[in-house]
Each structure stands twice: as structure tokens, then as C-alpha cells.
Write a structure and sequence with these properties.
By secondary structure, the protein is of the alpha/beta class. Helices cover 44% and strands 19% of the residues.
Length: 755
């Protein structure tokens, strides 16, 4: 009964996810209309993004390498042209020659994918501006009936606009190019944009009265350019065309009319068909082939010709000539479904080609209708077949159904302009199959484990392992909880390798690590790993320990005492070990907090380990102990969990390397009731001096730290004059603050500048 319930819950969730994915796509325009602020944009667009990636892979199979557009040509700013003409940007005199040559060859429309937003300052003395020469060439070209030059501009989103980079009011020149628009409701408009001041043509060029169209483009959330911003709202319900639309209009003389329904969804109507735009004014690009689908002429070849080259004339005469960059160095390459580095000008050419060839997508409603049909039919068939509990039949159905749908889509539906939501349709079928298969496998594995446990006392484990597979394998992932991270390191260990042979070093480390690990495991600690001489461990996982912080401090004291015993042993062994071994010290860092523990790595190889910000702090405390001359440093988070079972002295409130928030740390002195009197005196004197230091009574603090210094030296007499200690650190700080007092808002926090 429980198994059936789990089975149907899983199937229901999978079907719900699939239905939700298709449903969100169906109502995406309405959801976006309600979410004009964009708060849910990522969630709303996620199903569509997933579908788009799957659609891209299928669409690539339908591209026709032999497809041709005989009306559109690219005049390319390629690598050879850059070498021939010179470094970018080119003088307007170059464009003067280019436009004149195009006129000679009979081009009909010139569409620049090049911004002319800055006047050219270089000119010969007594000569007009090169901008005026270019304007004259445009005027001459347009003097031929039906000819037009289109100069582009760029837009900025309303959210990122300000009056310094965009026009608050629409430039007057643009009113000549407004799209014919029909709106169901005047207050329902497409997404609003502004014209960028920094990307608008210079006045001298505008004197020639060229056509103006925007070339703004933006990618989908995954960084892929799949759409073209065909029409944009530049404020007050005024709509401007993209350069692809303008080129189509000037070549054909037809009007492309915009219609916006009461829900804010738009369409662009031509005599040949309808292009759906949604609420953003963007249309998906229906790719026909590749770059080879369009005519191609290099600017180098055009400028080198005498104006009579028959091959060039055949390519350009009566055509729309897009001028854009294909050179890598021009930085106009875009990641598209058909090419990861497609020159951006081809996206504009594709829109023009779609309009000229009536190559539009089918209305979204038709594609969604077929998608719903496949989803419902496939899901019910899958569930029905599974009732026979025949795994082979299930697998055959999934394979046949999946491949059949994909085949029909690639060879019949995509070529006709349908965009099915096949990912979520197949998710329902494959997901239902996979869930049942996995659940059956899990139940089978549990049954085998039950048999293994039941017969383990009667049959050898080896024989049972041969008869049955093992139980559930460990899974990647972890659990989050409050536990204690524990780091140790041998002071100056890098110097040991200079004094010891490799064999001696291994022997020493094995003896040291064995002793320390035994203490760790006795207290229920979990060994994470060894990193050379370092021990990384934690307390409180996988077995929960309420007193994990107490155990960590008990282990720290035990390890320090064990190291003292080891040092005595090594000294007793005479000349076997050099002095550096006799003087070995270890540093320990302890911190408690929210830490993730679990199996981490790959599915093939994983380790039970810990991760989290609290882990990093423990490591930093171990490293920072060196700067204070102490050997066990504990964070305030751990101290707060110790229930006054240990004697500690407050060391400092510091900001460790890599952390913004300060943390108060403590020097672990011993357990309550077991701590030497001198250490208790050290604690008392140091705390008194620390209070004076924080009250900025420098001289009195120095006097207090000098008193505690005596007990610092008693604690580690062998380190006197060799290593620093907390009292010396604060005496030095007090002297520095006497000369350079801290600011008035000084909070006593000290920022470490090194690990």
C-alpha cells in the first residue's frame, strides 16, 4: 500500500512538472504582463529556456545548407578588408567610396550595421568634414528612385537609462520612421526603451536624410541570441522598426504594420504573413541555413574593383546590401543556435529574409495544441502500459514513442514552423518510466538486503554477496548542522624535511599522527583527512554529539599533552632525532557553526567531508595562532557552547584574512579545576590589561601586559626570547597607538593582513 502511494505521488509530481512547464509557456505573455517589474522573470522564462535548448538541437538537424536568399547580400568588413584599408574605425572617406561603388553596381538598399555616433575630427585643411562627404554619397545614392541607405542607432533599457546616456525625448529625425500601429488598448504597450545618445548618428550624416533603424540585440538568459527585437516602444506608444524590418520595407515598398492586442502581445503584419512578437517586440529567428545562404562580397574586393566587375554586379544589383563585420577583432560575434560565433549582422539579415520569404513561425497556439496532445496521450499510454508490469514492454514503448515524436518533429513539424514543447512532453513519458523503474529497482534492492540480513547467520557473507547485489550505495550530498571544525598543524614543519631523510620523516609523522588520531577518535571525533602533517577533523557528525564543542577542546588539551610526552620520548632517544624534533609544537584552530557534512565528490569516488564558512574560520584561527604565539585558538562561537568547563583567556577581536565580520577568539588554558595556578594568574592579569587597552589607557595597559608577560614566560620558558606571545603583541600595539592614536570610532577590532 505504501509502495503504491509513493509510486503515484512520484508520477503525479512528474506529470505536474511537465504540465506546469507547458502551461507556463502557454501563458508566458500573460504572466509577463502581470509581472512588468520583472520580479519573476527568471522563473517565468525557465521552462522556455529549457525548451529552447532542446529545440535548438532538433532545429539544427533541419538546416538546409543549400538554402539561398537571392535578395540579401553581406558586404563584409572582414580580416582582409581590415588589412587592406587599415585599422578600425575607418575614415568616413572610406564609406564615401563604398557607397559610391554600391551605387555604381546598382545596389537597391544599403543597411549599415555600423554605428556613426562620433564626428570624424581629422580633415585636410580647407576641406569639408569627412562626415559631409559621406552624407553627400548617401544623398547621391538616394537620388536614384527607390534607393535607400539605412543608418543604425542603438537603444538602452528604461531601467538602465539616464539623461546623460539616453534621450529623454525622442529625436525629431525618428518621427519619419514610426511603424503603423494599431492598439486594442492605448495603455497597454510593449516594453519601453530609450534611444542612446552615445549610439545615435552624427548630425552631418543625418543631413542626407537616410533611413534610421535600431540594431539593438540582447540574448536569452543562457547567453544565446535566438530572437531579434523587431519592433521597440520608444515611449508614448511610438514604435520603431529594427534594421531588418526597415530593409524589407525599403526593398519591397510594402508596409509592415504592428498590432498589439489587449493583453500586450504584438504581431507584425505584412502582405505575406504574420510575425508574432510577444510583449517585448521580439521575434524568434527562424534560421534557414548558414552564412552561405546569403551573397557575400568583401569590402576589399569592392574597393579594388573598377565598378564594372560582372561577378560583383550580379551579386549586388537590385539587392539589399547589409554592411557589417565578420572579423574576429571587431567584437561583433554572437553565440547563436546555429553558430557559437556568428557575426551579429546575420541576425538582422535573417529577419529580412524571413519577411521576404514569408518564413514565419506558426502561431504559438497551434504548436501548444499539438504539445498538449502529445503530453496527454503519451502520459496515459505510458501509465496504461505499466499496469501490465512488463519492463521490456515499458522500455520498448518509451523508445518507440520518443524516437517517433522526435522524427516527426524534425522532418515534418519544424520545417513548417512549429515549435513544440517536446522536452516537457517527453519528460512526462520518460520521467514516469524512469520513476517506476527506479522504484522497482529500489524495492528489489531492499528485498535483497532483507534476505541478506535474514540469512546472514546461516550463510557466509561472501556467498550472500555472490547471490545478491549490495544494498543502496552511498549518495552524493550532505547534511547541514551546528558542529565543530578542528584543524591542527605542526609549527614550521617545512623545515623538518631539510633535517630528516624521507624515511625518518615518514616514521616521525606516523608516530605523531597515530597518537593524535587515537585521542581524536576516543572523543568521538571524525577524521576528515590528513594533509601532510595537518589533521582536519570535526565533531558532531555523522553521529550527533550535543557536547561536540566540549569534546573538541578536550581533544585539543589531550593532543598538546600527548605531544609533550612525545617530545620527552624523542629526547630520550638521544641522537636519533635532531633538535627541531625535540622542540616540535602544534597549532590548533577550533570553531563551531553551521557546517555541511556528507559524501562529496563524484558519483565514482567520494569522501565524507565538511564544507562551509565556519570550516574556513577554523582553518584561519589555526593559522592566526602563529601571529599571537599561542598554540590553541578557539572562536567565540565554540566558547559559548562550553558551559564554563574550560579556562580561557580572551585573546583578541580580529578580522581574519578573507573575512569581513570580526570574531572574538580565545586561548585555551585548561579545564576548570585542573588548570595550574600560574595560568589562572596569567588569565587574570591579561584580562585586566586588555580592558585598559580597549579603554585606550596605553601606559597603564603596557604596565599590565608587562605583568602578564612574566607568566607568559613561565608558561613556555623554553620559548622566552625566541617567539612572541600575546602580551608582547599588545605591548607593541600600545606603543604604536601612543604615537598614532586610533580614530574616535575605534571598536578595538584588529585586522590581520596575513594568514
Amino acid at each position: 500500500m505504501v509502495t503504491k502511494f509513493i509510486r503515484w505521488i512520484g508520477i503525479s509530481l512528474i506529470v505536474f512538472l511537465a504540465v506546469g512547464g507547458v502551461g507556463i509557456q502557454q501563458f508566458e505573455n500573460y504572466l509577463n504582463l502581470m509581472d512588468r517589474e520583472g520580479n519573476w522573470t527568471g522563473m517565468i522564462s525557465l521552462p522556455g529556456s529549457i525548451e529552447q535548448k532542446f529545440y535548438d538541437s532538433r532545429m539544427m538537424q533541419t538546416l538546409d545548407e543549400n538554402a539561398k536568399d537571392d535578395k540579401t547580400v553581406l558586404l563584409s568588413i572582414d580580416e582582409q578588408s581590415l588589412k587592406s584599408v587599415g585599422r578600425w574605425p575607418w575614415s568616413r572617406m572610406v564609406w564615401y567610396d563604398v557607397i559610391n561603388k554600391l551605387k555604381t553596381y546598382g545596389a537597391k538598399v544599403i543597411a549599415f550595421d555600423v554605428i556613426f555616433s562620433e564626428p570624424e575630427l581629422s580633415r585636410k585643411e580647407g576641406q569639408p568634414s569627412p562626415d559631409l562627404y559621406m552624407a553627400q554619397a548617401i544623398a547621391d545614392f538616394q537620388s536614384v528612385p527607390g534607393n535607400k541607405v539605412i543608418i543604425p542607432y542603438y537603444l538602452t533599457t528604461l531601467a538602465s537609462s539616464d539623461d546623460d546616456i539616453s534621450y529623454k525625448e525622442l529625436p525629431g529625425e525618428l518621427y519619419n520612421f514610426v511603424l503603423n500601429t494599431k492598439q486594442a488598448k492605448q495603455d497597454v504597450n510593449l516594453t519601453e526603451w530609450r534611444v542612446a545618445k552615445t549610439m545615435f548618428p552624427v548630425p552631418d550624416i543625418l543631413k542626407a536624410e537616410p533611413g534610421l533603424a535600431h540594431i539593438t540585440a540582447y540574448p536569452d538568459p543562457d547567453g544565446v541570441f535566438r530572437t531579434n527585437l523587431v519592433s521597440v516602444n520608444v515611449g508614448d506608444g511610438i514604435y520603431m522598426p529594427s534594421i531588418g524590418v526597415s530593409a524589407f520595407q525599403y526593398l519591397t515598398g510594402e508596409s509592415a504594420d504592428l498590432e498589439i492586442d489587449s493583453n500586450g502581445a504584438a504581431i507584425l503584419k505584412t502582405k505575406k504573413g504574420i510575425m508574432e512578437l510577444g510583449i517585448t517586440g521580439a521575434s524568434g529567428i527562424r534560421w534557414a541555413g548558414s552564412q552561405k545562404s546569403y551573397g557575400y562580397v568583401s569590402i576589399k574586393d569592392l574597393l579594388a574593383s573598377d565598378g564594372k566587375d560582372p561577378k560583383i554586379k550580379e551579386k549586388l544589383e537590385g539587392k539589399i546590401v547589409f554592411i557589417g563585420s565578420t572579423a574576429t577583432g571587431a567584437h561583433d560575434l554572437r553565440h547563436t543556435p546555429i553558430d557559437a560565433a556568428l557575426p551579429g549582422v546575420y541576425t538582422h539579415m535573417s529577419v529580412t529574409s524571413m519577411l521576404l520569404q514569408n518564413r514565419f513561425f506558426k502561431p504559438e497556439e497551434k504548436s501548444l495544441y499539438i504539445s498538449w496532445l502529445i503530453l496527454i496521450l503519451g502520459t496515459f499510454l505510458m501509465i496504461g502500459i505499466q499496469q501490465f508490469e512488463n519492463a521490456i514492454a515499458d522500455a520498448i514503448f518509451v523508445v518507440v514513442f520518443g524516437f517517433s515524436i522526435i522524427y516527426v518533429d524534425i522532418y515534418h513539424l519544424i520545417p513548417r514552423g512549429y515549435t513544440l514543447s517536446l522536452f516537457f512532453c517527453l519528460l512526462a513519458v520518460v520521467g514516469t518510466y524512469s520513476w517506476n523503474t527506479l522504484l522497482n529497482y529500489y524495492i528489489g534492492a531492499k528485498d535483497k538486503a532483507f534476505l541478506k540480513n535474514a540469512f546472514g547467520n546461516y550463510i557466509s557473507p561472501e556467498l550472500i554477496d555472490q547471490m545478491y547485489e549490495s544494498g543502496e550505495p552511498p549518495k552524493l550530498g550532505g547534511d547541514c548542522g551546528i558542529i565543530t571544525a578542528y584543524f591542527t598543524d605542526i609549527q614550521g614543519f617545512s623545515s623538518f624535511s631539510e633535517k630528516l631523510s624521507a624515511t625518518e620523516l615518514v616514521e616521525l609523522l606516523n608516530e605523531y599522527l597515530s597518537a593524535m588520531t587515537d585521542i581524536l577518535l576516543e572523543e568521538g571525533g571524525t577524521l576528515d583527512k590528513y594533509e601532510g602533517d595537518a589533521i582536519i577533523a570535526f565533531f558532531g557528525a555523522p553521529m550527533p554529539l550535543e557536547d561536540h564543542a566540549v569534546r573538541s577542546c578536550r581533544v585539543a588539551l589531550g593532543m598538546q599533552n600527548a605531544l609533550l610526552d612525545l617530545r620527552k620520548k624523542w629526547v630520550s632517544e638521544g641522537d636519533k632525532w635532531p633538535q627541531i624534533v625535540h622542540d616540535m609544537r602544534m597549532r590548533i584552530g577550533i570553531n563551531s557553526g553551521e557546517i555541511v557534512t556528507g559524501n562529496m565528490g563524484s558519483a565514482m569516488r567520494m569522501n565524507y567531508t565538511m564544507m562551509g564558512d565556519s570550516v574556513n574560520l577554523a582553518a584561519r584561527l589555526e593559522e592566526a595562532a602563529k601571529q599571537y604565539g599561542i598554540f590553541t585558538q578557539v572562536s567565540m562561537f565554540t566558547k559559548d557552547m562550553l558551559e564554563d568547563k574550560f579556562v580561557m583567556r580572551e585573546l583578541d577581536t580580529m578580522r581574519v584574512v578573507g573575512k569581513k565580520e570580526p570574531v572574538t577568539t580565545y586561548d585555551l588554558l585548561g579545564e576548570v579545576g585542573k588548570t595550574e595556578e600560574d595560568l589562572l594568574t596569567l588569565q587574570s592579569l591579561f584580562h585586566e590589561a586588555l580592558d585598559l587597552y580597549r579603554n585606550q589607557k596605553w601606559d597603564e595597559a603596557i604596565e599590565g601586559f608587562n605583568k602578564s608577560l612574566e607568566y607568559e614566560n613561565k608558561r613556555f620558558p623554553d620559548l622566552e626570547g625566541k617567539k612572541t606571545n600575546p602580551s608582547l603583541i599588545y605591548i607593541d600595539r600600545c606603543n604604536q597607538f601612543k604615537e598614532n592614536p586610533p580614530p574616535e570610532d575605534w571598536d578595538g577590532v584588529f585586522t590581520l593582513t596575513s594568514k
